[in-house]
């Protein structure tokens, strides 16, 4: 049973590939960073798309790419600092713990010590995934945007990259023209999706000896995932586990037709039975 | 965990939250590659909170340190570099040594701030304390470079001496610096006004003995005073000092600081600014003739003995 758990974990780790949309988005960010280097002011980049479209992957890969050549990459984690304003997050990142933290959260102006911090630290890139996580009120959103805009103006040479999952077209974006947005598209049926499935099939064959030929079941998989990469990967992981638990090496239409819920239930049942 | 750095002080490490609870259990592993010997921060503060066992093991020798409660000396350029590179403030051990009022990386005198708060905001909110001088940055840099060179030469000389001789030489260095920095009189030691306005009198530092007046003066003096004292040490202990110090003397005279930096004048002024000279001080000064064998030191003693400018 323990071996099975390890195998499941390995499947979770292995079954993932950069989608062309994610690769394109990373390239676009790099291009934007390079093309803007001569400009007086870099525009903050907003990476938008549905949850599961690959925003987090874009952010982590982009951070990794920048970190290869610079120590000035500031990766902020919103989930750890849910109630922090941009100013508070920056201070916290650099180890400062201001006593008037609450006042900072509601400030529209740029305090002089933030200016000094940014002048000393000279970050080259600031990356923040899900940058409006926990910010719900319209007033708070505008406050966050005002603070980030102040920061961007104070460090014109710094690239600021935000992830904004779950909102394909944020309504507030029309009010802040100084932001560049990049959208990560969902899948559509076609050669690109076909190629991605073929890569995943190759992986399954090499790693687990499974002859899945996912391209043949493109429409079923598209239907199950609604064209979303996150949904597709979740589905395929369960599918690989299901095939292995059923001692099948070939994929059939019966397996391809199973919905995610059915796969999870089936896998859980087999797990339970083998444990008893 | 953020990477350790050999020159970083222990309290700096603690303030960066490297040691998460339970501190003591993980402590030995954390300091495995970390040099605590001679770390000024590793003082009695840590004996209060479960660090006692470790403190006993790595207890430093007396390294002539400036307590956190007095002031915090930093190189702002180094702090900026540490923010850039490590995304955290890193404070170096050397910054709290009386004998090192300079930053060797940037060839400058250290900036002084009041006692450090745990929020670290004073480095963003406050300006460094004034050096009370009209000397421009270029001259201050020249002074810093001279102090660095003198200090490094001293350490190198001691390196080639037998332990007893090296110890005696450092003892002389320390005693003479303290003589130049003391708080015994209204004006303080001569290094406290040679290149700057006199140190303001602070009733908080009223000494009760000549020893405490010497030690107190050393730890409350600013970086310029300490660098000045190091240059004076060089002036009275090296035959070639007049050549190496001449450019500094020429530059500071142009800004209204007219005292000559000669062994005799340093000796006589040192004597004049002391309200009273304890025989023990004179005895100590004469005892160093043995290790500081040079004409300059004899001239200094002559000036000190006669006390005339």
Properties at a glance:
heterodimer, A: 276 residues, alpha/beta, 9% strand, B: 309 residues, mainly alpha, two-stranded antiparallel ribbon, 4 strands, globular
How do the strands and helices of this protein lay out in sequence?
The complex is a heterodimer of chains A (about 280) and B (about 300).
Chain A: H1 2-14, H2 20-35, E1 45-49, H3 55-67, E2 73-77, H4 86-93, H5 101-105, H6 112-121, E3 125-129, H7 138-154, E4 159-165, E5 180-183, H8 191-208, H9 218-225, H10 229-245, H11 253-257, H12 260-275
Parallel strand pairs in A: 1-4, 1-5, 2-3, 3-4
Helix pairs in contact in A: 2-3, 9-10, 10-12
Chain B: H1 10-15, H2 23-30, H3 52-58, E1 72-74, H4 76-86, E2 102-103, E3 108-109, E4 111-113, H5 122-125, H6 137-159, H7 163-181, H8 210-220, H9 223-237, H10 241-253, H11 263-272, H12 279-287, H13 295-306
Antiparallel strand pairs in B: 1-4, 2-3
Helix pairs in contact in B: 6-7, 6-9, 6-10, 7-8, 7-9, 11-13
Describe the 3D structure.
The complex is a heterodimer of chains A (276) and B (309). By secondary structure, chain A is of the alpha/beta class. Helices cover 53% and strands 9% of the residues of chain A. In chain A, strands 2-3-4-1-5 form a five-stranded parallel sheet, sandwiched between helices. In chain A, helix 2 (20-35) crosses helix 3 and helix 10 packs parallel to helix 12 (260-275). The longest helix of chain A is centred in the C-terminal third of the chain and has 18 residues, at 191-208. The mean pLDDT of chain A is 86. Chain B has 309 residues and is mainly alpha-helical. Chain B is 48% helix and 3% strand. Chain B has helices at residues 10-15, 23-30, 52-58, 76-86, 122-125, 137-159, 163-181, 210-220, 223-237, 241-253, 263-272, 279-287, 295-306; strands at residues 72-74, 102-103, 108-109, 111-113. In chain B, helix 6 runs antiparallel to helix 7 (163-181), helix 6 (137-159) packs across helix 9 and helix 7 crosses helix 9. The longest helix of chain B is centred in the middle third of the chain and has 23 residues, at 137-159. The model of chain B is unreliable at 19-26 and 43-62 (pLDDT under 50).
